[in-house]
Specification:
By secondary structure, the chain is of the alpha+beta class. Helices cover 33% and strands 25% of the residues. It has 2 domains: 5-143, OB fold (Dihydrolipoamide Acetyltransferase, E2P); 176-321 and 381-490, BirA Bifunctional Protein, domain 2, CATH 3.30.930.
Amino acid sequence: MELNEQQLQRRESLQAIREMGIDPFPPEPYNVSVTAKDIKDHYEDDKLNYKDISIAGRLMRRRIMGKASFAELQDETGKIQIYVNRDEICPGEDKSLYNTLFKKLLDIGDIIGVKGYVFTTQVGEISIHVTGLKLLCKALNPLPMPKEVDGKVFDAFTDPEQRYRMRYVDLIVNPKVREIFKKRSRAISSMRNFLDDKGYMEVETPILQPIPGGAAARPFITHHNALDIPLYLRIANELYLKRLLVGGYRGVYEFAKDFRNEGMDRTHNPEFTQMELYVAYKDYNWMMDLTEAMLRSIAEEVTGDTSVKFGDKTIDFGEPFERLTLFGAIEKYTGKNLHGKSEDEIRAIAKELKVEVDENMGSGKMIDEIFGEHVEHHLTQPTFIKDYPVSMSPLTKKHREDPTLTERFELIINGKEIANCYSELNDPIDQRERFEEQAKLLERGDDEAMFIDEDFLRSLEYGMPPTAGIGIGIDRLVMLLTDQSSIQEVLFFPQMRPIKRED
């Protein structure tokens, strides 16, 4: 590997540190008694707590002034100023810890531990007076530190391509990014607590599956050498969770990593997280009420309010969510009534609306394309779109009032699908017929159509209670709660195109 000048200098410093008899990567643990945030939040409340503290973090800035220096230490919670006096950390004749290590061989980004006491400087800044200092890890690559001149920031680490590829650097130098992921963690915890309080059980189901079921999507395929069979990364965990309801559980949920071999854009990543919940003896109307209450609770927990700012919009989780039928919404925004139309009629309407369709598409796929092109972007506030045609919902119970429809809803917020729910189909004969229709679409070239899952059909023949099931896209929900327009901003390590290297 070819090293630049700064990398070479840091390696020279590394060697000099070793020659001083100091281990730049010491093996023993370092006791941390307090964080930067703890000190700033509570120092003035009770100074007695901070007479003898120990803290660790990265050295981020340094201002050397002869025998004494000020520096900035950054830990997980934020930054705090430290004051280092040569004679305090080097009480004997040997002053090398300060004169050589601290002043010359430490670099921005090095991880250090300091002991000392907290005080307030003459200008009123809460700081740590260092009485002991230890190098905990020598950083061999320089950080891309922004510079601020006259209130303007230069050389900030803002290029998305670099930030996503080197998220570890992004998290160090862009504190706001760390806050996004803290909110993501809180959102998941809040959802889990909400469901646990209802008495539902969190479970785990297979990621490697012999048949990719539970959604209309193109799967990733791999091969198991010992069994000599193809396996698929799951596109959904629905069919396994339903098997558990057959087995007798009342309500189960799972936070699942799912994988779909599809395009990448600002709202799609091939690996994504969703929560799926299945509750026996309930229907999609009940699930609308539960979903509304859960998302309202999560928004308040994560942001402190039921109204969330997203760009120049305000998403209001506090108001009752609007409920529209799919065909009603399409007619509202296009003037076209698709209900009861044949496949040829829908294809003609799609072409009239300038929606791209092909001969491989069934009526359900074309309706979905029309909705996506002409309706979805109008739905800013949380809206339940319900009552989908049977051809679009092969796992859903038929509507109790109109057998050409199903009892299904999607929750749309800010023009994007956030959740998908069914009154689950539990008639094994009807389910087999729906799977067979999907198999015909697969033969016609629809690579997102569903496979026939014989074991799942067999489980239904043992009897599954009436059930409501929902999948909620965690990544998209977090985007809303953190005001992020790109899914890559809420994934620690989004999928990236390989770097093209010149020979």
